[in-house]
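Record type: monomer structure entry
Structure origin: computed from sequence
Chain ID: A
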Amino acid sequence: MLFTYTYVPHQMERMQRFVNFIFYQVWCRSRKAGEYDLALFDANPPLKEIMTSFAYGDTEAGDRFSSQVQAIYKSFSELSREQIAQFKRWYQGNNNLEKVCANTPNTQLARYADIAVNHKKLSDQLGTFFKGLYSQSLLDLASLRAKIGDIDDHYKNFVQINKVGKCPFCGISDLLGEYHTKREAYDHYLPKALYPFNSINFRNLVPTCHYCNSSYKTSKNPVYMPQDPAGAVRRRAVFYPYKSVTHSIELQVTLQTSDIENLAPNDIALQFGPDTIAEEIDTWKEIYGIEERYKAKFCGGNGGKYWLVQVLDEWRMDGRNPSDFLTTLERQTRNRPYADCNFLRKPFLDACEARGLLQDL
């Protein structure tokens, strides 16, 4: 991840707080609370108003939500105290996204597959419930929307604070911003198809370009390495999208040929740094196909080849020395690294200079 987002608080966070209440104060207390009843929500009047509307209203999404809460309540009532304590640890771990991404020891993380080992029915129930929390048919219900607002307004506020205008996962694609009437999709960083408990947690929801979200990451699991030939699977560190401490990724490009016109991906070597975040960089590269995409940019006519033409043609006509161009580019890259793909253009042209391709001027 090239840069992190600033987290933007919003009214929609209330949805996760409602879910927290349902989990801790309703489901986890079901062993002693007796039969399911709307009185279970008395301590949270706004949520009780919503649950009452869902229970007695005539909307399909509301009725489905209410029925699922009740069914999971019954399943939790059959768990032992030790099992409920385990679910609490899983719930807390899955929602502590920063610790999960850092692969902090003792942070428990639960996939639906992990829960299904001993609780297959409950795993299926939780999957249906949490995957449905992000559905537009639910979020658009008037009684709920009046309490939590809507996601389009969240996005509008988000891009007014996060103004880079580029996808932080690739740095190549523009993101729709405050002057657009449409918005980008929110990626579930921990995929909602794999993980319960955080499908409406906005620290797990990240605006992402279409290519990063739908073409490369898809449903890949960022916090687990791909299964090795022996079948072993282990955790790994990954960039946390809202980490307050920023990082800077270093990129060095080496060209194995001087034939830029016929440049191919195999002619390019990429080296990333610094070593202090090597594991996070390796995860990022694998999840988002970074090396493939950067090499494709360098080989394409609107990327590396064009950047070299700028120096060899346009700047030659102005009588400028290529070193002047690189000096100007260095300043532009320092000030605005993602404008015009400067963060890629600078190391590529440095590689061209190292191959002697700027000496013809």
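Annotation 1: The mean pLDDT is 94.
Annotation 2: The CA atoms of residues 48 and 108 lie 31 Å apart.
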